[in-house]
Amino acid sequence: MNEQDPHSRTVILHVAVAAIQDDQGRVLISKRHDHVHQGGLWEFPGGKLEPGETVPAGLTRELQEELDIRLLRSEPLIKITHHYPDRSVLLDVHRVLAFAGEPKGMEGQPLRWQLPAAMPMAEFPAADRPIITALQLPDLYLITGADPTRPTEFLQRLEVALQQGLSLVQLRAHDLADTAYTRLAEAAWDICGHYHARLLLNRPNRILTWADGVHLTRHQLAVCRERPAVNGWVGASCHDLRELRQAERLGLDYVLLSPVQATPSHPGATPLGWQRFSQWVEQVNLPVYALGGVGLESLSQARQWGAQGVAGISALWGYQEPPKP
Asked: Engineering a disulfide at 148: which of 79, 173, 188, 307 sits with its beta carbon 3.0 to 4.6 angstroms away?
């Protein structure tokens, strides 16, 4: 299926793409033949939609033709629009949750199962690279809550959250002085390491080389002229399309977009609603977490509207004080 870019006369090729994951977390990739566009690079299976074909139908057909497998269940992962010098593509990427059969290279293409963290981005087409990031990011994103001024209780809450399987944490403690924030970050880092979780710091002026990355506030994002020079991931908080596009220009790895729904913590903020959330998400090539009035129960809905997953403070910071004897 060819689509017209509303801002130009460029014809965009609509492509259905599959991220097929096995029970070890590896994803199936295939190598493009040397004579085709972007030849010699690795890619995710899929192909162009036929006129009038839906994405689920096209994905089912492509996987049967290309890999001899039958698609059983999938869900949206990310949409990417990319402009090459000679063509433009819209990659409609779905995570394949279940399939029947054993994948085979029906067109003679080499296949490989590989963990997303081990995928060399330079060996993939530019349009595919945000897919790798989306596959590495989890679907739940914890933002720490109250009260960082009481570190013992705070760290207990963090550990309980990690025991529930959360694996990505933003250390949010705006009221702490830099020295106290660093001490808390070091203690949180030890706990996160024990549970194989990643810790992002919400204080770019206190970049610690051992952390897994940083998270920018909307105000920090607005004054950035280039991506912060840190190891690991860089994300940002966004509240409108202009901020989303700024994050994309800087080459950030993910963003939080809020508030999706009404939330008691920001009673004066006008919620976006899922439709506007989806419209904005489709205009940037970034994994976007839904934030604000969403929780675990919203995860499936968020994915259907194009989100990477959901982020939360109160929804995921759920430690309960043990009853006193």
From this structure: 173
* pTM score above 0.70: yes
Q: CA separation (Å) from 118 to 51, 115, 133, 136, 139?
A: 36, 5, 11, 10, 19
Q: What is the DSSP string of 238-277?
A: E-SHHHHHHHHHTT-SEEEE--SS--TTSTTSPP-HHHHH
Handedness of CA 303, 307, 309, 315 (dihedral sign): negative
- For residue 207, what pLDDT is reported? 64
Q: Enumerate the β-bridge partners of residue 60.
A: none
| Structural domains of the chain sorted by starting position, each given as residue range(s) with its CATH number in brackets | 2-125 (3.90.79.10), 140-312 (3.20.20.70)
Query: Is the distance from CB of 125 to CB of 39 less than 8 angstroms?
Result: no
Tens digit of each residue's pLDDT (9 = 90 or more) over 135-194: 999 999 999 998 999 999 999 999 999 999 999 999 999 889 999 999 999 999 999 999
